[in-house]
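Fig. S4 source data, part A: sequence.
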Amino acid sequence: MRQGIDPDELELARLVRFDPRRRLVICATALVGSVDAVVGVGAIDLGDRDAPVPSLVVVDHGATEGLAELISEALIGRARTAAGARAA
């Protein structure tokens, strides 16, 4: 991988096969040259209502600036929204 990360099959499977009631995954893409490329991915477990923290955020720092923070904020915001909807 471009980031030098060598995820195992279980980690990759958790990104593409997950229960949306328990886990949220965001994938960021960008047009790089003439190809739509994945430039970031993040995941968060939805069980922690008080202080949700992303369990994974990986971005291509060479193609983006500030994307890790944007993905983290989006994941945390969505996790809080989901927790509020379940509490209501």
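Fig. S4 source data, part B ends here. The chain has a mean pLDDT of 83.
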